[in-house]
Amino acid sequence: MRLVCEFQTEKEAFSFQTYLQNHGVKSVYDSTPTDVQAIYRLWVIEEDDFDKAANYYTEWKQNPNEALGQEPIKGPAQKPTQKPIGTAGNAHHPNWRVRVDAPRLRSPFSINSFIIVLCGFLFIWMIFQEESLLKERGQFALQEELIPLAQTLFFDYPVYKVNIENFINQNDVKTADDFKRLPQNTQEEYEKLLKAPTWLGLSNMIATRDWNLYDKLPDGTLFGKIREGEVWRLITPVLLHGNLLHILFNMLWLFILGRQIEERIGIVRYIFLSLLIGIAGNVAQYLMSGPDFLGYSGIITGMVGFIWIRQKIAPWEGYPLQKPVIIFITVFVLAMLALEVVMIGLKFFHIDSMFTTLANTAHVIGGLFGALLGRLSIFQRVHP
């Protein structure tokens, strides 16, 4: 393996590597940090390809961006330093669009793994709390109340929910039969609690044609607990999951996608990226459907959008996410969005038996917001 030349930017190294690949010359490049900026060195794999690579370099300099399918660079191109060298050690033979070695975290600690463990812990905790609620308060309470963890971590804990839980507790209602044995006026009191004005989202306003719902809400209803200072609710719903399949699906994708991003942008910016996507998706979902939603999938779609954009504008960063995967997730989200629109339409025409609630707004907004953040230079890959 021989060194062909050095570059000041990774974009140039990747462009020339692509140019060589298109001409059948296998090459790799690495980087060496300096006090000013990293230096990128490109090596040909086979000794016999060195002369060809040198000639191709002369051709490539005429239009460095040709290999990337971009417009020619305006002004004079930077001239890399060409240094022939002897053989080097053994090299890997990776896919030419991926770096020789995957970038490594500067710390052995992985926030991505921590999030997976945390979600798993909270999921198990939720199961124990549900079992405890069922044992102590009965099936009726389990259906109508929020477990303590949900009360604390959901986007909001609305007043009407508190009133319902107080009613169940005061009247010692544990089953549906217990409720039926209550006096008629007490049952009517409960029905009033269920019908009390509360925020269930724009989709509910559309489905029920209640265009004046916002005016009926008590003061401080929207973003109630967050306005009281419980700002953690902006992000914590993503840590909770409804069932085993839900958490397995999300954590599998988080392991695949989150690790790629964290390795390339570092722990601090990975946390920042996840928070921005999660908050944007949660706020949008709350406005669309109210506070009863949970799951990491909004951030997952945001990661897909982020990686898709980085592959387009900075392919040398080497995100190994295949196009069919991006297409599959995009089609899935769009299909769920279409189904959600259909179900809201059915509810609008009073076809209640076919109505279901789908928390898909966070998926769409998360994906779009992740793509938007992917265009920011602050999230470009750090030098290994």
Highlighted features:
2 domains; Rhomboid-like fold; Alpha-Beta Plaits; 384 residues; single chain; 16 helices; mainly alpha; 54% helix; 3-stranded antiparallel β-sheet
Notes on the protein architecture:
With 384 residues, this protein is mainly alpha-helical. It folds into 2 domains: 2-68, 2-Layer Sandwich (Alpha-Beta Plaits), CATH 3.30.70; 111-158 and 198-379, Rhomboid-like fold. Helix content is 54%, strand content 5%. It is built from 16 helices and 3 strands. The protein has helices at residues 10-22, 50-60, 111-137, 139-144, 148-153, 159-170, 176-180, 184-194, 202-208, 213-216, 224-227, 244-265, 267-289, 297-313, 323-348, 361-373; strands at residues 2-7, 27-32, 39-44. It has a 3-stranded antiparallel sheet, covered by helices on one side. β2 (27-32) and β3 form a beta hairpin. The longest helix has 27 residues, at 111-137. It is elongated. Mean pLDDT is 83; it is low at 70-103.
Q: Roughly how much helix do the residues carry, as a percent range?
A: 40-55%
Report the β-strand fraction as a percent range. Answer: under 5%
Tally the structural domains.
2
Largest sheet: 3 strands, antiparallel
Count all strands and give the number: 3
The quaternary structure here is single chain
CATH architecture classification name of the largest domain: Up-down Bundle
Question: CATH topology of the largest domain, what is it called?
Answer: Rhomboid-like fold
Distance between the termini: 22 Å
Mean pLDDT: 83
Neighbour order of strands in the largest sheet = 1-3-2
Annotated CATH homologous superfamily of the largest domain: Rhomboid-like
Specify the overall morphology.
elongated
By DSSP (H or I, 4+ residues per run), the number of helices equals 16
- CATH class value of the largest domain: Mainly Alpha
Structural class: mainly alpha
Q: Give the SSE string.
A: EHEEHHHHHHHHHHHHHHH
